[in-house]
Amino acid sequence: MNIGVGLPATIPGIDGRLIVEWAKKAEDLGFSTLGIVDRTVFPNHDALASLAAAAAVTSKIRLMTTVLLTPLYNEVLLAKQIATISSISNGRLSMGLGIGWRKDDFDETGSVYSGRGQRFEGQLHAMRRIWEGSKHAAGGGRIGPIPKDGIEVLIGGLKRAGIERAGRLGDGFLAAPGTPDEMRANHDIFMNSWKASGRKGTPRWSSGMYYALGDVPRGLDYMADYYEFAGDEMKKFQDDMISTPDRVWNAVRDYAKLGIDELLFHPCVPDLKELDLLAEVCFS
After folding, report:
1. What is the DSSP letter of 121?
2. What angle do CA 166, 239, 48 make, to 5 degrees?
3. 64 Cβ contact partners less than 8 Å away, ≥ 6 residues apart
4. Please, are residues 129 and 39 in contact by the beta-carbon 8 Å criterion?
């Protein structure tokens, strides 16, 4: 199983240069992927701009959104941005896409919350036509650059409809963390949808979780801030944050047993020491 790490770009108040330093160090330490969570109504750095910065200073590590809230974007402009980052990174970009569940992100961008799943499917079809070099239906012109090997798309889903959508349309499944039984059940839904759609091969299965191994109280403060909207459930998100080396190791062991291809650890503390602490557990 591969082990990736998130960028600290989602943490408020960071110096943007930390994104670049973090990306270079994560590659040097041997992590497989740099992931990033997408949000609008939060004082975080933009997901795609952050990945572009990471792409420019790395040469081996993969880059991935986990997930990008696709219905908030114009799909034509988004397809062009994604293809550009793929070109800058020499094809190292994978896209984790989803429909989002925070209504305030939609309200602030003037996007319609209802029906977003259906819109997402239309957006994905349109972006894939653009990436294939087809003339875009609305204007008749081609939109580039054209990714030479296409764009790998993993689809995230929390509910059955989203998981089945991932099986029908994704190149892989970006699963929400859960108990082993929950993870197996959701993967079964995904694979049943994959096979029912007549699709061949073995799709990629990825998941992620939050961690803080150094300044744990600061990590808990970040989780409380990020999930303030969840009210009484916010404590659950704090409890799920990985905060000890044993919990890191147990997560790696348990997810490997499930057969997951890649596990990403998203940082809750913007300190490069967090990378060293995580790498020491995962790779030593």
Report:
1. H
2. 45
3. 4, 33, 34, 35, 36, 93, 94, 95, 96, 154, 206, 264
4. no
User: What pLDDT, on the 0 to 100 scale, is given for residue 135?
Assistant: 66
Q: Residue 236: its pLDDT value, please?
A: 85
pLDDT of residue 138: 65
Helices (H) and strands (E) in the chain, counts: 11, 8
- Range 179-188 burial, b when 16+ CB lie within 10 A, else e: eeeebeebbe
How does DSSP classify residue 9?
G
Q: Which pLDDT score, from 0 to 100, does residue 203 have?
A: 97
In order of start, what are the domains of the chain with their CATH numbers?
2-283 (3.20.20.30)
Give residue for tokens 């963390």: 177
Which residues of the chain are modeled with pLDDT < 70?
Answer: 135-139
Q: For position 42, what pLDDT does the model report?
A: 96
Residue with tokens 């970040």: 222
The pair of three-digit structure tokens given for residue 54, joined into one six-digit string? 């990471």
3-class state of residue 152 by DSSP = strand
CA 22, 222, 68 angle in degrees (round to 5)?
A: 65
275: left (phi over 0), alpha (psi -120 to 50) or beta: alpha
pLDDT in tens, 61-115: 999 999 999 999 999 999 999 999 999 999 999 999 999 989 999 999 999 999 9
DSSP string, 52-92: HHHHHH-SSSEEEEEEEEGGGS-HHHHHHHHHHHHHHTTS-
